[in-house]
Amino acid sequence: MRSSGRNSNRNHRGAGNSRDDRQKHAGRPRPEERRYDAGSGGRPDRPGGPGGAGKSAKPGGAEGRRQGQGQEGRQGPGGGSRGGPKAGAGAGGPKGSRRGPKTGPKTGSGQGGKGGTRGRSLPARPREYDAQIEERNRARHAKPALKLPRTFGEAEGERLQKVLARAGMGSRRACEELIDQRRVEVNGEIVVEQGLRVDPEMDEIKVDGLTIATQSYLFFALNKPAGVVSSMEDPEGRQCLGDYVTNRETRLFHVGRLDTETEGLILLTNHGELAHRLTHPRYGVAKSYLAAIQGPIPRDLGKRLKDGVKLEDGYARADHFKVVENTGKNYLVEVTLHEGRKHIVRRMLAEAGFPVDKLVRTRFGPIALGDQKSGWLRRLTNTEVGMLMREVDL
Hints:
Oligomer: single chain
């Protein structure tokens, strides 16, 4: 059944009255009651608008009292609004009753309302706890390393020929030839096969009886001519031992000394410990000399030298004495002793009554001068260096 216009108007008026009542209870003014100033831009929460601090809006006005009364039922006991953190006090403009101005605090000031509970700040978590959490997460996602068989992974150690080549023994092909010649030993055993893997830091590797760690040192034998000073440098500008090794990058030093007029074998090296032991009386490294003297000499000369000849600085004794050559009154004798005092051989023979015309050192420990020419420098072989090492327990 179609309703009449009278009833329709009545229903509209009733609906309008109920909407006005809801707006009044909600604290919002009716649209025709809203007033906006031109300077506020139509925003009640701006300064100069109904909700701001301008002339047209006052917190104590009628609208503020009306809005405050409509908001009483929606606030908690502590003054907080049901609207949450954005709700402010009821003394603002039309919209200030629900949300408040944007410049105000976002958390409610009451203790009993929902806004005060949500705005409460939580204590900060300590960094140690964060580090523990991170460590647990990493341990959870970490995967154990796979244990592959040796056929799939790299074999342990390093090939022997590669270690020898890095130590300066030559190219890898040359090092393989050393292994084929059975000149290489590892931990006291001679290597007879190629491709043996070793640990250079743990295993003892030797070539010709000499460890490869010693291969980085230099060992030379020089046949010193007469008139050359036994020093690496001479402040007076005389010819010295350093003139024979000027093209060496590594600094060398001589082992022991020889008189300026004495010729023969002298060792040069950069191995400090070996040089110290070769010249120390404790190790007693023997040195042999050939001396040219004038005869005739008595048969007991050797015995007198072995028993000891008294010198200015004490007795000096020879370890061995023999006559090498005799031509008329010219004698060539060999004297071996382990002392290294200055002019020791010359003073011993002069004290016995036979001054030395010429003196040559022919042997220093296990190293012999041989047929090396005067003024020539040669590098000692690994075998010779190994014999020197064993001579002084290195």
